[in-house]
């Protein structure tokens, strides 16, 4: 006597397709956030983080993907080092509606520049093309320390170098150090980190 075949279970293709699509979207979103997250980016020097592998043959897949996504980290360490900050020196996320004072000692290098990016790693719009401050146009005090102000409106002190950040979104500061001295190349976290202080009470 043959037993009756078990009834076939109905295949719910729309449900299965929805689960697969959801998994793909979740995986892509997680990978994207990982690539954008500066908190998981190399060694720390104050609020700044620096990649130890950017531009090198030893770069891992995530570092190479960050280069592809942001286009900021393509050169070798002896040519350029990239320090990125997404928070102020108190650990609070940077916002474009707020004003900040970035101050410190120039890095030990042939040249340096400071750029403010929006949280999508694109430059803020500015009719006068004020996108970067460097060793030639920064404001220095008597002790040789520089000061740069970022924010949606120009600072009250005209002597301060200003990087405009219009709108209300996240900010990523990038400090590029060109041809750093060998000691800094060997120990990137030894940078005397520029301090990032909020101006006024902005939340």
Question: What is the count of β-strands?
Answer: 11
**Helix- and strand-based class?**
alpha+beta
CATH topology: Jelly Rolls
**Which H/E pattern describes the elements?**
HEEHEEEEEEEEHE
Secondary-structure arrangement, i.e. CATH architecture? Sandwich
Widest beta sheet: strand line-up: 1-2-3-10-5-6
Query: What do the pLDDT scores average to?
Result: 77
Largest sheet: 6 strands, antiparallel
What's the alpha carbon Rg, rounded to whole Å? 23 Å
Overall geometry:
globular
CATH superfamily: Domain of unknown function DUF1214, C-terminal domain
Q: Count the DSSP helices.
A: 3
Terminus-to-terminus distance: 78 Å
Proportion of beta-strand residues: 25-35%
Quaternary organisation of the protein chains: single chain
Unreliable runs: 23-40, 55-71
What would CATH call the class?
A: Mainly Beta
How much helicity do the residues have?
A: 10-25%
Concise summary:
The chain has 203 residues and is an alpha+beta fold.
Can you characterise this structure?
- This protein is an alpha+beta fold and 203 residues long.
- The protein contains 3 helices and 11 strands; from the N terminus they run αββαββββββββαβ.
- The chain has a 6-stranded antiparallel sheet. Strands 4, 7, 8, 9 and 11 form a 5-stranded mixed sheet that branches.
- Strand 7 and strand 8 form a beta hairpin.
- The protein starts with 12 loop residues before the first helix and ends with a strand.
- The relative contact order is 0.20.
